[in-house]
Amino acid sequence: MDDLQFGARNKRGDWAPSAPLEFAPFWDWPPDPGKLARWLVGYVWPWNVFHMATALAYWAWIVPSTEAMQTLSWGWALWLYAVNAAGIFAIYGAVELFYYIRKKQGTRFKYNARFPAERPSDVFWFKSQNLDNFLRSFFISIPLWTLVEVLFLHAFARGWVPGLSLAEHPFYLAALILVVPAIHEVHFFCIHRLIHTPLLYRWVHSVHHNSVNPSPWSSLSMHPVEAFLYHAVALWHLVIPSNPILALFQLHVAGYGALNGHIGFDKLELTDETALDSHAYAHYLHHKYFEVNYGGDGVIPLDRWFGSWHDGTPAGEARMQARFQKKKARLNAGA
Ligand SMILES: [Zn+2]
Ligand SMILES: [Zn+2]
Prior knowledge:
By secondary structure, this protein is mainly alpha-helical. It has 13 helices and 4 strands.
C-alpha cells in the first residue's frame, strides 16, 4: 500500500497520518449519523470483537469450575498465568515477528522510522529494549494481570458479589458491553495521570516510558505498581452489577488491548489492498511527548477537557508547545 496517500514522511523518515485524531463523534454537535455509523463499526470491529471472543473462549475452555475457584490455590492460578502468557506470546509475538523482525511492510505507516533493536541503550536491562520489555511483561505484568483475574473469579465463585445472567438482564448487559471500553479509558486516564505526578513518575512510570519508540513488547513493560493498577480496571466489575465474563472482557481490553497503543504502525497491511487500523497514534504521541494524550482511543474526550489533547496536526503541536512554554515560565517564576 502507498502510505503517502494517507500521510507524509519527514526528512528522518518518520511517517505521520494526515487526518487529525478525533474523539467519538457523539461528542460533536450536531452529530453526523454517517460519521457515527462509521465510528461505531471501528469501535466494535475488529479489536473489541476480538477481546470479547477471547473472553468467551476463556470462560468456555480455560476458567476452572466454580467449585474449584471457591478455594484459592496455586494450581488454577498458575494455569491462568500460563494461558495469559501463551496468549500474549502468540499475539504480541506475531506482530513482533512479522512487522519488527521480518519487517514485512518495511517502514510503511511506521511513525518512527527506526526499529528499537537498532538502538542499544543503558536504560534497559541488558541494554536491549526488546529483552527488557519482554522480561518485564512476562515476569511482572502478566503475573499481576493473573492476580487481578484470580481475585475477581474467586469473588464471583464465593458469591461475594452476584453475577448477573444474560437471560435475566440482556439489555443491561448488552449496554454494559458497549461501555466496557469507556470504563477502560476513564480508569486508564486516572491512574495514568496519577503516575505522571513527579514522584510517582520517577519511581513507577518512567519504566514504561523508557521505550520512547515503543514496539509490541513495550505494551506491558511496566513497574509492578503500574501493572497492578492498570489491570485492576477489571475489579470495577465487583462494584458495578456485572458478571465474570464481562470482567474477563474488561481485563482483556486492558491486557490484550495494550498492544494497540504500542504497535508503532498506523496500519498493519494484511494484503496489498487491505490493512488493519492499529488505533496507535494517540498513545504513540504520548510516548513521544510524555505530557499529552493520557487517555486511550478517544471514546471519552478526557484529554480535551483537561487540556492535554494532541490530535497529531500542526495546530495540535502548537497548542502543546504553548502549554509547555507556559509550564516552563511558571516553573522559572517559582524558582
Ligand atoms: Zn505506553
Ligand atoms: Zn505515560
